[in-house]
Amino acid sequence: MIDLLLTVFRYIFLLILFVFIFQLIKMVFRDIKHVQPGGASLRAGPAEIAVQDLAPLPGAAAGLAVLVSSDPGLPSGNVYPLKSGEELTLGRGGRNDIFLTGPYSSVEHAAFFGKDGQFWLEDRGSKNGTYLNDIRIDKPTVLADGDRIKIGDVTMQFVRWSYEVESGNRSGPYKEAKRG
């Protein structure tokens, strides 16, 4: 009786093992089918938006443009205004201004804030990190126009529309050339 029971368990185990191997092979071939010989993917991913063509948002000195996202609630092309003196938070928690559903985002992942005419990015102690131009940040960091921010599978770009008023001093390398 025990021999029969052991034989049945062996066949069940082998069947589960074969199903697992079959699923694994199926995934590998599906991924291979979507990659060109040069390594570029044939999958239709989100198209990167042309950030330079974005119109300034009313009342905003800067914006945060979503370039690439697999998050259905955060599609590529969305632009979030950034105003000096205000904070914009990102994360999985319901109190955030930008709600991220990805598995690599924390409840309170990161924040953007404007202070003294500059905009800053701060990681809020996330486990998987906040990346600025492919470098993980661990303290508040000043943003420059065109900086890319990556949180999990979401990539955004900081866009600066207005700048501080320039000095009236035009001496040195910034002196305008006279036409004559």
Keywords:
180 residues, alpha+beta, 18% helix, elongated, six-stranded antiparallel sheet
Write up what this structure looks like.
The protein has 180 residues and is α+β, with helices and mostly antiparallel strands. Helix content is 18%, strand content 27%. The strands form 2 sheets. The protein has a 6-stranded antiparallel beta sheet, with no helix packed on it. Strands 4-3-5-6-9 form a 5-stranded mixed beta sheet, with no helix packed on it. Strand 10 (148-151) and strand 11 (154-160) form a beta hairpin. The protein is elongated. 16% of the residues are buried. Mean pLDDT is 77; it is low at 35-53 and 164-180.
Spatial order of the strands forming the largest sheet? 2-1-11-10-7-8
Number of E strands:
11
Strand proportion: 25-35%
The averaged pLDDT comes out at 77
How many distinct helices?
Answer: 1
Helix % is 10-25%
Q: What oligomerization state is this entry in?
A: single chain
**What spatial form do the alpha-carbon principal axes imply?**
elongated
Structural class: alpha+beta
Secondary-structure element order, as H and E?
Answer: HEEEEEEEEEEE
Low-confidence stretches: 35-53, 164-180
Whole-Å distance between the termini?
107 Å
Main sheet specs:
6 strands, antiparallel
* Radius of gyration based on Cα positions: 25 Å
